[in-house]
Amino acid sequence: MILDWKRVYYIITLFSYVITIFLGIAYIYNNSIITLLITLVMLIISSILYCFNNIKYYIIHLIFYITIFLFLVSRPTIDYFKYGLINTYQEDVYRFSFLAVIVSIIGITIGGLLVSKRENKLKEEIKALKNKRFIDSVRKVSLSVFLFSYPFYLVRIIERLVYRLNVSYYEYYADFKSELPYFTYTLSTFVVYAMCIYLATKPNKRHSTIVLGMFVTGNVINLLIGTRNPFVLSLIFSFIYYFMRNQTEKGVWIGVKEKAMLYLGTPIMMLVMGFLNYARDGEGIGNMSLSELLIDFVYKQGTSFGVLARGYLYGSNLPVREFRNYTFSPIIEYITRGNLGILFGGTPFVSANNSLELALTSDRYAHNISYIVLRQDYLAGHGIGGSYVMEMYTDYSMIGLFLLSIIMGISFIFMMKSSYQSGILFFSITLLILNNLFFMPRGSFTESFFNLFTLQFWGIVIVIFFVAGLINRKVKHVVDNKGDV
C-alpha cells in the first residue's frame, strides 16, 4: 500500500487545529493565561503547517506567521518554558496581548482561505512577440535607472556609517541628519523602485542574482551601522523572489546549492545577529554557548511584545487630537505634511528623529508610545518600537483589527498570484511591498505599501514605462521595415 503523504500531512494539520480548538475551549473554562499562551503557540504552529499544504500561494503567510512569533510571541513563550511562569506584567495585560495576536492570525488565515481556492478564469491573450519586445525594453530601462541611482543609494548609507563611527548607536539614532543635497535622497529612492520593476520583468537567474546581490551588499553597510532590519529584510526579499521564480521554473532557481545556503546560513545569520545585539552596545557575549546565544537572539527580538503590553497599559495616555489615525498615518502625513502636502501649503515636521515634535504632535504610534513609556530616554535615541496590531486596535478596536487582518490575508494571496502572471506593474508593486512587509509585526502597518502613494514611485514608473514604450516603437518600426515577422 502506497501512502498518500499529502493526505497524511493534511490530517496532521487538521489534528493540530483540533488541539488548538480544544485548548481554546479549555481557556474559556479555566481562564488561565498559560492555557491562552499555549493556545496561541499552537495556533501559530497550525497556521504554519497549513501553509505547506499550498506553499506556492502561502509563502508570504508562512514567513509572516514566523515573524509574528519572533516579534510578538517568542518572549513570553521562552519565559514560560525557561522559568515555568510569566509575571513581567499583570494577567490582564497578557490576556489582551495574546487575544489581540490570536484575532489577527485568525483574520489573516480567513483572508487567505477566501481567495486561495479561486483561480483566475480569464485567459491572458497576449501576442508573444509584441509582449516580449516591450518587456525587454522595460528591463533595459529599469536596469539603467537602477545602475544610475545605485551610487547615490550607497553614498547616503556610507554617510550614515561615517557618522555612526563617531557616536554611539543611540546618539546616531537620535541626532543623525543628512548633510547631502536633497536630490541625492530622491535619486537614492529610485534604487528600490527600479529594482522591483526590473525583477518584475523576470530576467534570467544570473542577472537577477547580480542585482539582488548589489541590493544586499548595500544593506551590509546598514549592518555595520548596527541597524539589522534592512539587511535581514533584503535577504528575505531575495529568498521570496527566488521562491516565486522557482515555482514556474522548477529546480532552476532553488537547487542543492541554494538549499544548503538556506539551511546552513539561517542559523549562522541568527548567531551573528545575536552577537550584534551586544556589539552595538559595546558589550561582549561572555561565556554564552551557541545555543544560548541563539535563544538569546530570539528572546531579544521578542521585545515587541512589550509594545502590546505598554500599548494596553498606557493607551489612555496617548495624545488626544480632533483627528488621530495611527494605522494610515504615513499616508495621511505625506498628503498633509510630506512632499505632496508641501505643494499645497503644508508644513513638514522639523525633525525626522526622536523629538518632542514627533512624540506629541505626530500620529506615529512608535514615537507617541515610546515617549510616554521612556520620556528622556526616548529623546536620547531609545524606543520600544511599534506594531500593526496596536495601531489597528487603537484606531478600530478588536473588530477593526480582525477585519483589516482579513484584508491582509487576501492581499498576501493576490500578491503571490501576481508573481505567476505576465503583468509587470502588479508584480512590481508586489515586490515593492515585500521589501518591508515582514517588519510589520514590530513596525507600522502602512510602511510596507506607503511608497505606492508617493510622487517618486509613480514618477519613476511613468518615466520607465514611457521610455520603454518609445524604444519598443522604434524597434518595432525597424523590424517592420526589414520585413521580419
From TrEMBL:
The keyword Transmembrane helix applies. The chain crosses the membrane at residues 7-27, 33-52, 57-74, 94-116, 137-158, 182-201, 231-248, 260-279, 396-416, 423-440, 452-472. Keywords: Membrane, Transmembrane, Transmembrane helix. The keyword Transmembrane applies. InterPro entries: O-ag_pol_Wzy. This is O-antigen polysaccharide polymerase Wzy. It comes from Streptococcus mitis.
